[in-house]
Amino acid sequence: MGAALPAALLLCVGASLPAAPPAFAHDQLISSSPAPDERLDKKPGSITLSFSSPLLALGHEIRVVDANARNWVAGPPALTRETLTQPLPELPDGGYQVSWRVVSADGHPISGGYGFHVGEPSAAAPAGLTGSPETSAAAATGAAPGDAAAVPGWLPAVGIAAAAGLGLSLTLAGLRRIKRNTQSRAE
To answer: How far apart are CA 47 and CA 129, in angstroms?
Structure first.
């Protein structure tokens, strides 16, 4: 019976793993206005970023930079739950690079960027990230677009089960040693 109890408990933990909830991923940028690579005839009055969950109200920033590295923001951004809005002054025609940084609801900072264009296509565009919010977010984290996490969802559950099994085995071994020592002293 010595090894049967840890094996049975390990089997129960292993059998419950498929019912375990998936690990939560960081919040993600789900939309932006202007959109990535958008060409605008009319100058935008602000940049609006919408995220998958409400953000923490600390450490958020949006930069809107032109080809000459000038930041065109007008005042601090405004955060309303999952939407971050950055007021802009009257922008001249040209290309702009938006870069953003926020603190996710789980406390982790996330960032990304994309480009957009105002006016005629002949105006110089800034160097940097362009593309969809998903591509930019993936580039910022090093993950492929569409990947929710770089670690397979089952891997943490297996690690927890292995640690629980090891802890249980060590506890039972310690209890057996105490019992043996107690019996040997009684003799």
So the answer is: 16
